[in-house]
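Fold this sequence, please.
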Amino acid sequence: MTERLPADKAMHAAAVAREFGSWMASEQRRVFLLCYRILQERDEADMAAQDTFLKAHQTLIKENAVKLDDPSKWLTRIAVNTCLDRLRSRSWKMWSRRPAPADEELILSGTPSLGPTAEDQVFAREIKGRMAQALGNLSPRQRAVFTLRHFEDRKLDEIADILGLDMGTIKAHMARALAKLRVELQDLYHLNKRAEQ
């Protein structure tokens, strides 16, 4: 095999950078939302999404980089693993910069409303907050499995492949996540123990 000339390397690097830039632009929102749903903090999700693309880029620019069958699945796996690493590491929590609830409410109240009524917004905010709180009570793996299934609309076999787990383990995490969420959110969906009896 012949060694690439410096000019060839530069042209190859420029081509990879162009392709990667357009691919990143098309995947950026999806990756950010995935990270946000798992980490539940906007700044943390933004940093995790950046780390995801940095890791992907560093892998793709290597001369011995392999051709990917499904780049989206590969990128999702990097994003989930990056988020799980951040959740395992407790040190990042001390750097959290989320505003105080009163300040956050003031910021949100200053935005103009063009769509739903105030009542709809309050109800949606309540559901969103309750869902975020309920997702926060799940284990990191349960949260990752639930997020990939219900927010990313991935099939269970894809989730197993992305997380590198057996199908039975994925099903167990999903069942536990759903059971916990049903208990925590039963009042929102008018599910109570009396109705089941």
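Residues 44 and 96 are 8 Å apart (CA to CA). Residues 6-39 form the longest helix (34 residues).
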